[in-house]
Design goal:
Layout (H helix, E strand, L loop, with lengths): L7 E6 L19 E2 L2 E2 H11 L4 E6 L3 H10 L3 H9 L7 H7 L3 E6 L10 H5 L10 E5 L2 E4 L3 H11 L5 E7 L9 E6 L3 E7 L10 E9 L20 H11 L2 E5 L3 E4 L3 H15 L3 H9 L2
Parallel strand pairs: 1-4, 1-6, 4-5, 8-12
Antiparallel strand pairs: 2-3, 6-11, 7-13, 8-11, 9-10, 9-11
Helix pairs in contact: 8-9
Length: about 290
């Protein structure tokens, strides 16, 4: 079956993010900032820049009102104050948020098992049977390029794709930290080997949370098909599809960074600031002198 080009993206932020406590006891993890924008906004912008016009954010019951407020609240009192101070140029950043594509905020189905596949299943009702769609994990950011654009371009080149996943080369000494891609027939996925030893790794390509999927994935992301630690894993479904279908692997054209723990978040934040903020040179000088 041929699927329609993606126009929808599912962005997930429905976990507990316990490594970020106490921040995440009242805030969604993807609301931590990169510069002056939360991570979630950067992921939404990546989708929007690639032509996605319908975005579904899957979050916790506690996170839902926070995201709804962030993406819809025009903070009119702030606007009035800035206007009175002749500083309306600062409000332009708020306007950019309000003019993002259509965004729906939904709760993850609490009846589903824990796992990164459950937020995707929770958005099933919004995905037609004949359309491909994008999935982004909000604890993965991509600097210098758009993986979503790469996925959509690849789908144009491979209309027979049952799925497409992004991957990034990592140091051979780091493969034991990631799911490592095993390839067949050029750039087709054979398998994803979770955290292999260096001498057992099939490649140095690490898989992460940027996917183009088709509704076939829902045949495998079911409550009775949990994997390691009793969780519902997206990569388990993708590797099942690869057994009989075509799952293409695309190396990123940018730089993938995980923000899933405080250490890696800080590194990603620092890299983002050095590349995007007008005070980057001051940060470099500060670090050099300390």
């Amino acid at each position: 079956m041929k699927y329609r080009k993606p126009t929808k993206a599912i962005i997930t932020d429905a976990g507990f993010a316990s490594r970020f406590l106490p921040w995440t006891k009242t805030n969604p993890k993807a609301m931590v900032p990169m510069g002056n924008k939360p991570i979630m906004q950067l992921v939404v912008e990546e989708c929007a820049a690639a032509g996605i016009d319908d975005i579904i954010i899957v979050t916790t019951p506690e996170g839902k009102p926070i995201y709804e407020d962030y993406f819809t609240n025009g903070v009119n009192h702030v606007y009035k104050q800035l206007r009175s101070q002749h500083k309306l140029d600062r409000y332009k950043e708020v306007e950019k948020v309000l003019h993002l594509p259509k965004i729906r905020i939904i709760e993850q189905d609490q009846a589903l098992p824990y796992g990164n596949g459950s937020p995707i299943v929770s958005a099933r009702q919004f995905i037609a049977d004949d359309e491909a769609f994008i999935v982004c994990y909000s604890d993965d950011i991509v600097l210098k390029s758009s993986d979503v654009a790469t996925l959509i371009d690849s789908f144009g080149e491979h209309p027979d794709a049952d799925a497409i996943i992004m991957a990034q080369d990592v140091d051979s000494k780091e493969v034991s930290k990631y799911g490592i891609v095993s390839l067949k027939d050029g750039n087709l996925l054979d398998n994803i080997v979770e955290k292999p030893e260096t001498n057992e790794a099939p490649s140095t390509l690490a898989s992460y949370g940027r996917y183009l999927l088709t509704p076939q994935i829902f045949d495998y992301l079911k409550p009775n098909k949990t994997g390691k630690d009793g969780e519902l894993w997206t990569v388990d479904g993708i590797t099942e599809i690869a057994k009989t279908g075509k799952v293409y692997v695309e190396p990123t054209k940018g730089q993938w960074r995980t923000t899933g723990d405080p250490r890696n978040y800080f590194m990603a934040q620092l890299e983002y600031v050095l590349e995007n903020e007008d005070y980057a040179d001051e940060v470099r000088a500060f670090v050099a002198n300390h």
